[in-house]
Amino acid sequence: MMAAIFAALFAAFAFGWFGRRTPALVCVAVCFCLAVYLFQWEIYSPETGFRMPWLKVSLPGVGPVS
Amino acid sequence: MSATLSPSTHRTLVALNYIYQLAMMAVIAGILSAAMFMQYAYGELPCPLCLLQRAFMCALAIGPILNLRFGPRPSHYALSMLAALAGAAVSVRQILLHILPGDPGYGSATFGYHYYTWAFILFVAALGLLTLMLLLDSQFDRTEAEPRPAAAARVAVLLAIGLTAANILSTLAICGFASCPDNPVRYELFQRH
Question: What's this model's pTM, rounded to 2 decimal places?
Answer without folding.
Answer: 0.89
